[in-house]
Amino acid sequence: MNRESIDSVLRSLRRVNLQGSLFGHTVALRFGLSESDIEALEVLLDTGAATAGMLSDLTGLTTGAVTRVIDRLEQSGYVRRVPDPTDRRRVIVELVPERMAGVAATIARVGDKSASEIGRYSEAELATIDDFLTRMAAIRHEEATALRESRDQASGGGSQHAAPIGGLERARLLFKSGAHELLLRGATDIDDLYRARFEGSVPQVRLRDGTVTIQYKGSGSLSAGPIFANWQLAWHERRSDVSLNAAIPWDVEIVGGAGKLQAKFAALDLRSFALTGGVDQLRLTLGQPAGDVPIRLTAGANNVRIERPAGVHVRLSLKGGAGRVDFDQQRLNGTGDTVLETTGATEAADLYQVDIVGGAGKITVTEVG
User: Fold this and answer.
1) Does residue 148 contact residue 60 with C-beta atoms inside 8 Å?
2) DSSP states of 166-189 as a string?
3) What CATH fold (topology level) applies to the domain 3-120?
């Protein structure tokens, strides 16, 4: 057999894999699940029930990722954990038939159409096809395992993550364990719920109940002090770029502090923003508020700049003092606890309530655009 014929088959196989992935993505969107959730459900449709270890082996996901998939599916009512009838010490995962009916029917339509095509081949041809696909599945499984095991040793190129928006009408970003450099932005040009890119060390990313949680291994926080100079070594490897789908409202919380944080939220419907653990440099660009939107910075800040559209109201509450405050046309030097607000903020139905607790070096609140 010549190489051209082999390449033709491989291209066809890639097309099948691509269309299968697109179909899984579409089904996931239809039912408000992730692609990993759908893959696990398809495995359970084939096996009837399985342990977490079996699901990990069959899907190629890590045991931790499989546990999170099972947690999501159990909470959504698609599966349940039950004792293994052959060994009560083990737990198996089984489908909930009445909840699975819609997903199963959607997947079955492809199976029915595929069966009619498969029926065109002889028994001998089908045996050859089955052998070929079995061998291809084994190769893909081996390569996925090798990539997963070598991920921690990989360097350069960054790591990218995304998840479908599904049926979510509001979402939350929870960034745990802090970051050295963090760029957040509201994006109008993406279909996913979020897209994230990480340089250096790669955090754990998970989506559950509308909350995107990003957490690095180990602890790390910004030390107290007016210039925030003492970093733990791991912090210097934490550079993150996260885009949030601006089609829905978001709550954003960052725990553990940040070195340089830029939040471009002019296009985002921001419903709350909280940062604990201190920040060296923060630039927060806001859009139009919906109601009373709280913004809270706790544990001190060195340099904070908050930008808002013309005519948008802000009330600034400062506890712990600041070296300098520039609030529109007002400038205060060496101030203690104080409250400043834009003219008309008291009567405004929509405004940003900014609370800075723990002191700050320089705070700037200004109009842009």
Assistant:
1) yes
2) TT-SSEEEEEES-EEEEEEEEESS
3) Arc Repressor Mutant, subunit A (1.10.10)
